[in-house]
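Folding Task

Wanted — backbone structure
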Amino acid sequence: MTKIKSAFKASCSNCGLQKICVPTGLKRTDIDQLDEIVDRKPPYKKNEYLYQVGQKFNSIFAIRAGAVKLFTYSDSGEEIVHGFCLAGDVVGFDGLVNEEYTYNAIALDTTSVCNMPYDQLADLAVKIPDLNHQIMSAMSKKMFDDRMHSELLIKRNADQRVAHFIWNMAERFRNRGYAHDEFRLPILHRDFALYLGLTPETVSRILAKFNSEDIVCWKKKQVQIFNETALKKIAGLAEADPAGQEFG
């Protein structure tokens, strides 16, 4: 419990996620000003909502630890998964357009976040151009992620979608300085299947095949990649492709 407390009380200046979060490239004095408006509450528990559809927009959230699922429901009540966010990602921009959140954001695991009241953040961004640039970059990344997800569903078959998703997650862990060939991923296969436009049965069959071919194993929230080259080949990613392209 001590580790969790120290995590959400840490400041922006000593956060290990600076390079991939909003404070990227800011001066120490700018980071100190940002730190003053950040509200670090106790971690969200698994299945606890950061925000829900229709709730008044007031904050964006930088994830410090854990994972978040973004989803909505169709008119017929079917769940639609829009993405998964990891440490270093920023969520909540979906509330900007109509001043209310258009997604549900739920913690998939014990999740620590930095709550940044948007009015205060916007005022500070006027004074700090570099901060404004970082906010725009975070918003642009969300648009890029959405486009990449659409292309994945349109252009790739089932095996390619699964392989591409796993490799993308591996790259996201690598970019955060964590082990990328073996990592914990608290995403249910059901949610993963919905995100990829597949049935859970199809995902289970493909994962079983990848495991039997010693390419990758994903069981009980633990992912282990045995053959990166084979995984990238199935995903349709050339060896020359630049690392770090992620969506989620």
In short: Confidence is low (pLDDT under 50) at residues 1-9, 240-244. The chain has two domains: 2-145, 155-235. The radius of gyration is 18 Å.
